[in-house]
Write a structure and sequence with these properties.
Layout: E1 13-14, E2 23-24, E3 32-38, H1 49-62, E4 67-75, E5 86-91, H2 99-110, E6 114-119, H3 124-134, E7 141-142, E8 172-178, E9 181-188, H4 192-196, H5 199-202, H6 206-224
Parallel strand pairs: 3-4, 3-5, 5-6, 6-9
Antiparallel strand pairs: 1-2, 7-8, 8-9
């Protein structure tokens, strides 16, 4: 039986780069908005615009999270990123980031921001290079199946579901922990975001679409809930 969880959202306060006053996420807003990250390098950061919208709508129908169905497109190096407690990044190609953009991303994650990245096939190499350059002393690790991320609202005892074939490898979920906090989640060989898209775009079977939306809900709730270890 499907359960509906009532969660109290704690809006995060972010410390902006030096010389910029602190800004509370979503000031004077009754609903939390999330961001989709725009990046340079030729990768299609903008692909499947229906994906994130559909996930936000599905999550709002399942969980009282106080989250808006709208999202904002935000440049990787923009200080506006600090207005959003959750950011999403996807694409097929190369991510290019200069020192300023990497510094912005690092400060965002170190000061409470959460980033979810979904490899839409072809993103893996440049994304891993971005994280290595941004966090030279840290490493992404594979998240074990018993982590709360996989049991937050819906149970995924075998980890992230396989939505698209890609190279026909087993799907994996990696994370970057900062001072013990899971600040970044990266799904590889799964492609949840394609499953969120309108059914006519990728012809994803309905059972796979439901799996992808449920796993996406887990990620959103984990990131935005005041108690992510439920």
């Amino acid at each position: 039986m499907q359960k509906t969880f009532v969660l109290i959202v704690t809006l995060l306060t972010f410390a902006l780069p030096p010389a910029t006053p602190p800004v509370q996420a979503q000031v004077n807003s009754d609903e939390t908005q999330v961001a989709r990250i725009k990046y340079r390098g030729g990768g299609d950061w903008y692909n499947d615009p229906s994906s994130l919208r559909n996930l936000l709508r599905f999550t709002a129908e399942q969980v009282h999270l106080g989250i808006s169905n709208r999202y904002a497109d935000v440049d990787l190096g923009s200080p506006d990123l600090f207005r959003y407690p959750f950011a999403f990044l996807t694409g097929h190609g190369t991510i290019a980031a200069n020192a300023s953009e990497r510094r912005n991303l690092r400060q965002y994650l170190e000061n409470g921001g959460f980033l979810y990245v979904d490899d839409d096939y072809g993103l893996d190499t440049s994304f891993r290079e971005l994280i290595k350059d941004t966090f030279p002393d840290e490493f992404m690790v594979e998240i074990p199946y018993d982590h709360p991320l996989f049991h937050q609202v819906y149970r995924f005892p075998n980890g992230v579901p396989k939505i698209h074939e890609h190279d026909n490898k087993a799907p994996q979920t990696f994370g970057l922990f900062i001072d013990g906090r899971l600040a970044l989640v990266y799904t590889y060989e799964s492609n949840l975001a394609d499953g969120w898209a309108d059914p006519s775009i990728h012809n994803t079977p309905e059972n796979k679409r439901l799996e992808s939306l449920r796993m996406g809900t887990n990620i959103l709730v984990y990131a935005l809930s005041g108690n992510p270890s439920l």
